[in-house]
Specification:
The protein is an alpha/beta fold. The protein contains eleven helices and nine strands.
Length: 292
């Protein structure tokens, strides 16, 4: 029987770990580099163990005490077929469960309740739980999905601003601000966009919300379109028996007040973060093992 439980929250920008006793009380936390197991399995394993060691050290527990740990790892890329099983074979823990980072976000935000959690950050994904059945929609990546996410907001702002530069659309204070960022030089925008990654586009998302607060017509247009796509996904994800809706991620709180009246009564602030959700799921795994 394991002496400790471990929660891991890993993605493309970093990996966080929390070591806890078997009741779920966190004893120490640690961080390391990226852990997207679809894009780089080997580096992910290194960073998962580095974050674990940092958490063990912070808890003043023996480093490399892996055989005493039951772990739940919520990782980007774990929803891709076969990848989670491949990682599981490489892990040294006494027992482990590898799930999508969306699953631990769901657990952290709404606990064991039925409901829907929407992650609205650079990208977007919708996670629904009903009668212990979890389904996910979206999250297929910036180029083909992630509507409402920061990267798509930034891309749309650049597109609309170039149309305004060409005189096809009217300029607004928001389009002027975006163009001024590139010194009113469209070729600079083209060079930027050629190599830009989702996070690069996402840096402009806060501008849209900032100018929307000033009733800028372009900001209002972009956000109206984004809210329509978010609500279409909610209509497909949320049912009458799911009383709880939580919007998380960097843009979640900004979108909340913009949802239609039919969703407002269901909105709840997240109970906790994804790492807390991973610890809770690790505690459940430990309890199930103890009972068997």
């Amino acid at each position: 029987m394991a002496d400790y439980i471990l929660g891991i929250d890993g993605g493309g920008t970093g990996c966080r770990a929390a070591i806890a006793d078997t009741s779920g009380k966190v004893l120490g936390t640690g961080q390391a580099g990226p852990a997207n197991i679809m894009t780089d399995m080997d580096t992910s394993v290194v960073n998962i163990l580095a974050a674990t060691d940092a958490a063990l050290l912070a808890a003043e527990l023996p480093v490399h005490a892996y055989s005493r740990i039951t772990a739940c790892l919520g990782l980007a890329g774990a929803n891709v077929s076969g990848v989670a099983a491949q990682l599981q074979q490489a892990l040294p823990f006494a027992q482990s469960s590898v799930v999508s980072d969306g699953i631990i976000a769901l657990q952290g935000a709404i606990g064991d309740a039925d409901g829907v959690v929407v992650i609205l950050g650079t990208g977007s994904v919708y996670i629904s739980r009903s009668n212990n059945t979890v389904t996910m929609k979206g999250g297929w990546g910036f180029k083909v999905s992630d509507l409402g996410g920061g990267a798509r907001l930034g891309q749309k702002l650049i597109e609309e601003s170039l149309l305004a530069y060409d005189g096809i659309y009217q300029r607004s204070p928001l389009s002027n601000a975006l163009l001024a960022h590139f010194n009113d030089e469209p070729h600079a925008i083209v060079r930027f966009a050629h190599d830009a990654r989702p996070n690069d586009f996402g840096q402009f998302a806060p501008l849209v919300f900032e100018y929307a607060a000033q009733n800028d017509p372009l900001a209002d247009k972009i956000l109206k379109q984004s809210v329509e796509t978010i609500e279409a996904a909610l209509d497909a994800s949320m049912h009458d028996d799911q009383p709880v809706l939580s919007l998380i991620g960097g843009l979640g709180a900004l979108y909340g007040p913009r949802l239609s009246a039919r969703y407002q009564p269901r909105l709840r602030a997240p109970q906790a973060d994804a790492l807390t959700g991973a610890v809770a799921l690790a505690a459940k795994l430990h309890a199930q093992t103890a009972q068997s």
